[in-house]
Amino acid sequence: MSVNPVTVTVAYHVVPGHESGFHSWGWAMLAASAAQPGFMGGGVLVDREAEWHVVYRFDSEGSALAWEDSLARKQWEARTEGFARQTARHSVRGAKEWFNSQAAKPAASAPLPPPSKWKLWFVNMSAVFPPVLLFNEVFSAT
User: Fold this and answer.
1) Could you list the residue ranges that cross the membrane (predicted)?
2) Which pLDDT belongs to residue 46?
3) Counting CB atoms within 10 angstroms of each CB, which of 34, 38, 56, 78 has the fewest?
């Protein structure tokens, strides 16, 4: 078991119309987990109202596993039946893992090449030339 803090993110699909109930359930479940030794905090988040996340953190892997395997946690999970279902679970140890997972993402693609010369000419003739021509006609007549 590690002594690094462990952050657990659990994703849920919530049945439309039950968002308020899920939000209340999530915060109540977090209040129950706060009674567990090693609890460091948590929250309920929504991702564009399509997916909900319950995030909680414990001071060690052992503390997190004790909550995950507890009867209280299983009872709280059973209360979501009918209005939400778990779709994913992700656990991360320590802050270093957050940064490593970001570094593992592929680098941004190479910049796009400049447009071809005929495209530049077309933009110049259609967007720049008419106003310049009009400006010259208006002020050369005076």
Assistant:
1) none
2) 83
3) 78
